[in-house]
Amino acid sequence: MDATADELAGVVDLFGGLTHDELERALAEAAYRADGQSVDDTALEAAIEAALESFALVRYDPARKSDATADADGEALYVAGPTAFPSVPESAEDVPHILDVERRRLDRTMLGEAARDRFVAAADEAVAAGDDARCRTLLDVSYDLESWAPVDLTDERTRLEDALEE
Question: Which Pfam families does the annotation name (predicted)?
Answer without folding.
Answer: DUF7109
